[in-house]
Amino acid sequence: MGKWSDLPAELVMAIEESVTLYIEKVRFRSVCLFWNSSVRKVPNQQETCFPWLLQAHDNNKISSHGLFNPIDQRVYELYLPDSKSKIFKGSSHGWIISVEEGNNLYLINPLCGTQIKLPPRTKFPDVKNYRANKPRNEYGLLNRKGNAIVFRNSSCVNINLVEKVVLSSPPSHEDCVAIAIYGEYNRLAYCKCNDSKWTFLYGNYHVSFADLIFHKGKLHALTWRGEILVFETVSPNSEVTKIVSPPTPYPVGYYLYLVESSNGGLIMVARHVNCHAVGGEKGTAYNTSGFIVYKHNPSNSSWFVVKNIGDDVLFLGFNSSFSISSSSCPFTVYKKNHIYFTDNMTDFHREDNERGGDLGVFNLEDESIESLPGFKCPKLNWPPPIWVTPTPHQLNIL
Q1: What SS3 class is residue 68?
Q2: Ramachandran angles phi, psi of 262, nearest 5°
Q3: For 177, which of 233, 289, 345, 353 is 20 to 30 Å away at the CA?
Q4: pLDDT averaged over consecutive 10-residue blocks of the chain (398 residues)?
Q5: Cis link prior to 373 (omega < 30° from 0)?
Q6: How many CB atoms lie within 10 A of CB 181?
Q7: How far is Cα 241 from Cα 375, in angstroms, rounded to an integer?
């Protein structure tokens, strides 16, 4: 009996072209490496899909990750280039943004493994010099005022000092921009796919950012003080055109997220995390204990706490924060009025911590937290899983 890999590449491609459902494309490409490498680099996907969870796959195969489908609660093996050295720091428009140990950043299509290289971490505005021959002190970073240099190792900079990266649009769009929250002071920088460096975005050095989304075509940047700065454009001359005041009182000591609701409104989410020492004084264990959800009232630019977000379901983590309406999903797997969260606690992502495993499902009504059904999550889950929402592609540039 012949092997699946013995089929002619032309036949494999023809069969894959006839498949339109994302779940079937994932199953098709996970049959074997030959099938995955024989089909188009960018799939002709036609349906809008619901969130999947991309995770490190627990096997001995090189460059293997698993794509967990909450609908059938199965993990589909994917082959991503050099994935064992990558940490995912963003997910937008069906693409993953990764940082690798060699300081490089990439956009990756998780279904087909296509990569687009972004400027490396050494080309961020906070890097004064980089010394590859100085292990554990490779990076010379500017301090808050920009008048002195502090030295950090590559692992610290790549893991802890790239907070999140979001895309303004799919990379096929000419005006696609990647925006990063970076550095020890959580500042903003941006680049386009063909740029050689990252450009500093906002000139106020005293502002630190917690989250970013594009809302109604404009960049909305959430600060750690709960303010939202609205940018009309993303360019060297970008100016803040609007400031949305924070909730009163704003949640001090919480991790903050900004989400667009399914009906186009703004939602701010505050995440409370408990932590305690383990394994002596060096290690730390942590877990999410609850959330506070605020809705924005545009008529008077105020915020109010809610316990019910209707049919909406929120997805938080390293991904670009987003929501879906549970009523739009043909399956009952995503529960309305719930928050599905993964671990993006960069403050605790040190090697001696139990890192990566703080994920689950939060019920806003009774404030309970449960595990993601069907998902097996060890305490040490590194790199952390990330939500991916595949979107239809009409790409012919890669």
Answers
A1: strand
A2: -65, -20
A3: 345
A4: 64 62 59 59 53 74 72 80 76 91 87 87 94 90 84 87 94 93 94 94 85 95 95 89 90 93 96 79 80 95 95 96 86 88 79 73 96 77 83 39
A5: no
A6: 24
A7: 43
